[in-house]
UniProtKB/TrEMBL annotation:
This is Aminopeptidase N. Gene3D superfamilies: 2.60.40.1840, Neutral Protease Domain 2 (1.10.390.10), Peptidase M1, alanyl aminopeptidase, C-terminal domain (1.25.50.10). Residues 3-85 form the Peptidase M1 membrane alanine aminopeptidase domain. SUPFAM superfamilies: Metalloproteases ('zincins'), catalytic domain.
């Protein structure tokens, strides 16, 4: 499925609606600003509109406006010819970083090497925004510095005047300054330091994601997932995040507390992968966090709970408070017991906006046999008053519930009068949501049989949705264990026979 931002050819124009074209394409645009600065980027944008307003343009026209040529009217004093490779090459570049420290001269040396999969000898022009932190105090020794990597490998020497108590801890790829995979051998202690003290929000979050990935994958590899205990360093880092009353951006704290998604963990785990075991490993880490940090989680949750008569405010800080409070709620409800259901039910009833209401409803869907959940399921649908978007959320929350009997519950949802295969959004809210859940990969293959049943039916109504459904269901099959690979291959073979010839090409590529 790998392809460049600007494909040289295509089978159908609707194939252009991909994460690579849109998301990676946007990151490439943002790299211009990192390389040129805000003023330089704005200067290039002004020139771009001056030249091309009202015209059909290409990526080359945009790049030309951003670079300085021999003509005086061009915008910026940088040669961006090499930058075109971002548009032409498929795959994500990997940047490997190694470093050394000369205590006598106070010089920190950083060596960056890059490689692009399946395109040997080709290198990108990319910005690496870095900072340096003191190993003991966490104090920032070097603020945001942009290093330009234009070769396969290059060493940068950064001179520090004073203040370092030892080899600094690097804060690399600040602000996600380039869409690359970064390889640097951070220790858990270094990641904990970055998570606690880094002034770059992205790297504080990324450090916690790395620690979280390690904890989950260690549990995944353990002999007994249900008895696994994560490292004390990881738990200390989580506790510091929960107890952090200094950071003003509460959204940062909320995101830092969320473990990496299973889709991310699937890319980091070593194949062959049992996705249901990976799900169990992630749940185990969540339960340990919820149990060992229960008092801290409960205290922070109560601090963020507004008085019942407080007006509902729509602004950034208020939204951040709600986001953090809802993340804390999810942890407090991992037990699924009567107290958790009671807390969720109260959260649901007191909600004054969709953010809080949906957060509580999603948690209650994980304990569907509780009286609070049954009441919320009826109330949420009644409150929707026919709003299609809200009803889609009602379906989706139930279709992704973390319950053992999800398959029969999904089939029952499809019998609901509000469900229709002919409504693409409604279809995605149930079927597509289910096939992206861990329960889709049950070892008996029932989830794969469900996809085999549904995709031809959808194909007869909407081939594009059916193709995306097949891709979403099976694109990671090569990462799975041998038994699941075999079952999926059998279903893919049947799909190529069940679907019309002109719509089967994506399935064949899988």
């Amino acid at each position: 499925m790998a392809h460049p931002i600007r494909p040289e050819k295509y089978a159908a124009i609707d194939n252009f609606y991909t994460a690579t074209v849109y998301n990676k394409g946007a990151e490439v645009i943002r790299m211009y600003e990192t390389l040129l600065g805000r003023e330089g980027f704005r200067k290039g944008m002004d020139l771009y509109f001056e030249r091309h307003d009202g015209s059909a343009v290409t990526c080359d026209d945009f790049r030309a406006a951003m670079q300085e040529t021999l003509l005086e009217k061009d915008a910026n004093g940088r040669d961006l010819t090499q930058f075109e490779r971002w548009y032409l090459q498929a795959g994500t570049p990997t940047v490997k970083a190694t470093d050394s420290w000369d205590a006598e001269t106070g010089t920190y040396s950083l060596t960056l090497g890059q490689k692009v999969p399946d395109t040997p000898g080709q290198v990108e022009k990319l910005p690496m925004q870095v900072g340096l932190l003191d190993r003991e105090s966490g104090k920032e020794l070097l603020s945001d510095t942009v290093l330009e990597l234009t070769e396969e490998s290059k060493t940068f020497e950064l001179k520090l005047e004073e203040g370092a108590t030892g080899k600094p801890v690097p804060s690399l790829l600040r602000g996600f300054s380039a869409p690359v995979k970064l390889e640097y051998d951070y220790s858990d202690e270094e990641l904990s330091l970055l998570a606690a003290f880094d002034t770059d929000s992205f790297n504080r979050w990324e450090s916690m994601q790395r620690l979280g990935s390690k904890a989950v994958l260690d549990a995944f590899a353990a002999d007994d997932v249900d008895a696994f205990q994560p490292d004390a360093g990881f738990m200390d880092a989580m506790k510091r995040i929960v107890q952090d009353r200094v950071t003003e951006d509460l959204s940062l704290i909320a995101y830092a507390l969320i473990l990496p998604a299973e889709s991310t963990l699937m890319q980091e785990a070593k194949p062959p992968i049992d996705p249901t075991r990976l799900h169990a490993a992630r749940n185990r880490i969540r339960k340990v966090i919820a149990s060992e940090l229960k008092e801290d989680l409960q205290k922070r949750y109560e601090e963020l709970t507004p008085p019942e008569d407080e007006p509902y405010v729509i602004d950034g800080p208020s939204a951040s408070k709600r986001r953090l409070r809802n993340v804390l709620l999810a942890y407090l409800c991992t037990s699924g017991d009567a107290k958790a259901a009671e807390l969720c039910g109260k959260h649901f009833k007191r909600a004054k906006g969709m953010t809080d209401k949906l957060a509580a409803f999603s948690c209650l869907c994980n304990m569907p046999d509780s009286e609070e959940a049954k009441e919320a399921i009826e109330q949420f649908l009644a409150d929707a008053k026919g709003d299609a978007n809200v009803i889609d959320k009602w379906f989706a929350s139930q279709a992704r519930a973390d319950v053992d009997d999800l398959m029969p519950r999904v089939k029952k949802l499809m019998e609901h009068p509000e469900f229709s295969l002919k409504n693409p959004n409604r279809l995605r809210s149930v079927v597509s949501v289910f096939i992206s859940s861990p329960q889709f990969h049950l070892p008996d293959g029932s989830g794969y049989d469900f996809a085999l049943e549904m995709i031809p039916k959808v194909d007869a109504l909407n081939p594009q949705v059916a193709a995306r459904m097949a891709n979403g269901a099976f694109r990671t099959w090569r990462l799975l264990d041998e038994q699941r690979q075999k079952m999926i291959q059998e279903r893919l073979a049947k799909l190529t026979q069940a679907c019309p010839w002109q719509h089967v090409q994506k399935t064949k590529r899988l």
